[in-house]
Amino acid sequence: MLLLAIDLYGIEPFHKPTRISLKPGLNLVFGANGAGKTTVRRVLSSLLLGNDLKGIRFVENQPAQAAVILQGRDKGTYRITADYQKGLFNLSKLDASGQKSLLEKDRRKITAWVCEQAGGMQEEDLSSLFLIDRLQFPSAASHGNGPGTQRSGLSSGAPGPVPKKTEFPSFQIPDNEQPVLTPEQRAERQNQIKEIQRKLDEMAKVEETLLNARDRISVSKRRLNQSRELDSEAAQIQDAETKKYAAFAGIETVRPDLIKQYEAAAQNKQTELTQLEEQKEEIQANLANMGETDLFQDQKLRIGIVVTVCSFLLPLFVTLQGPFRYLFPIGVLAGIGLSLFAYLQSTGRAAAKKALEKKMTGFNEKANSLQRKFDKEHKEITELLAKTGCKEIQEFKDRQRAYQQHLQRKREVTEKREALLKGETVEEIALTIQEDEKEAKILEEKFQGYSGLTEELYRLEESLRHSEPAKEPPAIEMPDLGPVPAAVNTHAPFSFIPTALSIGKQKNPPFALQQVEQQTNILYALFKQTQNGKLHLKEDGEIEVSGVGIDQVSSGTADQIFLSFLLAALDQFSNVTFPLVLDEPFSILAPASQETALELLRGASKRRQIILFTVYPFSPKAADQAVTLSASQSN
């Protein structure tokens, strides 16, 4: 069984025909308070399971009509239609061309057909297990956020009865004991009935106002937490701006053409400097090859001097005769010639070296001149590099890009905070929360004052019916408007866990309690990775957390446990294909827990269609289908 679409018209606040398309998997239906989320859920409950439209108002001078289109077990497309003003209900099958063939008009038979399509479970059980509204969550019972808050039915230790449609016991009064009321007494009781009906209408309005107040409190707390997170992020951004980007203050943007010109000129300068460096290296190599230019370090000069001196000393020690007498002049001339050659060679090397050194100095001056000319022509960029402490233009560009991203994030945080606060301050939001909590407390006390009205109404109606004298009813010709809508489906408040266990024991095979407990612990552990608390599920429906009763934990933790058990329990009903409908289940959870809960529902939606009504603007990408309800669409 798969829901495909829900159509509404003439039911507040849907003044115009409205279609809500659904898909397999997780469906998110967004909407602010008063957009019609609760109306859609109650209409869906009425169409599928025959429940009354409690607290729903119709648009004046418009037909109050609704329909749900679904896919049956045979993969055929079916449409259940209701005209609430006329009391008509139809079940039709749609062919491929969209033509309808009427199958059933009896509302009870239509409900029985839905139950059969969903897997054979009774409508009371389907309503109890799969149509979950905010009031069934533990936090809705406690209205608090601390340990020690009592939650009726969640951990009482006694399994609550399976919720049934409202059926009060009829008063079996023997015919001979039926009281006969006077016209005055009948009129008085009829006035009492009207007064109770008026109070019941007031009770529905009080309930709606109370739910809206709780929604406002949740939204305000969410805004308050988000604003504080944004304030913390803004402080971190400001600290980074002071420490890391102080030098970039006032230079958010630099003309791109200046940077391009600078980069082109820098490349040309580098090319010229590279050429100069190559020439300098060549000169340095030549200088190295020249060797020493010191005259007295020249080996030839030393040899020449030694030869000359020895030539002068030789005649003093040896008498030179014959051809040996020529050794003296030859030695002197050779020594003087060798010394002179060494002197001339050394002088030439010194002159060449001096010329090379002068050329080297010219190259250095040319390189400095290029740098000065470059700095002068690109003074603006050069000063920016010096101011920001960047050595290269690429480093400047990278840091400037990071600074621009930093400024963009700063603007986003500021805009997000302004949009979140909507002109209010954090103190004003906190004050609004206090006022709404006071209003909610007053409404809760007022709502409790309406207890017992339904039973009293039924008692008065029964007394009037039994007091009527027996007479043959007149024959009235009128068209068959279909059966009277079934009684409202009322939930035993906050008794889901014992109720689910009671239903599970009746299935074949019965609930695997240990498996449900194990799966509940796995899901609950995902909310807090570091928690050590282990859940223990007892046969009577009582849950303990590390030996402590569930009534001793906070409301948020209790809701996490409730959702974990809900998904674990429904996995045991894999043969039941009825969709899970949740109305605002996250209102008390922190943002991180809300994301975890949404992830759990996304996983469960792979096995069962889920329809989630919420006021929180989760990302549409988180679901298979996202629909937004708004006043502009309805009116």
Automatic annotation (TrEMBL):
Residues 259-293, 353-387 form a coiled coil. Keywords: Coiled coil, Membrane, Transmembrane, Transmembrane helix. The keyword Glycoprotein does not apply. The chain crosses the membrane at residues 326-344. It comes from the Bacteria. GO terms for molecular function: ATP hydrolysis activity. InterPro entries: P-loop_NTPase (IPR027417), Rad50/SbcC_AAA (IPR038729). Residues 9-281 form the Rad50/SbcC-type AAA domain. One of its GO terms (biological process) is double-strand break repair. Residues 141-189 are annotated as: Disordered. PANTHER family: ABC TRANSPORTER ABCH.3. This is AAA family ATPase. It comes from Candidatus Manganitrophus noduliformans.
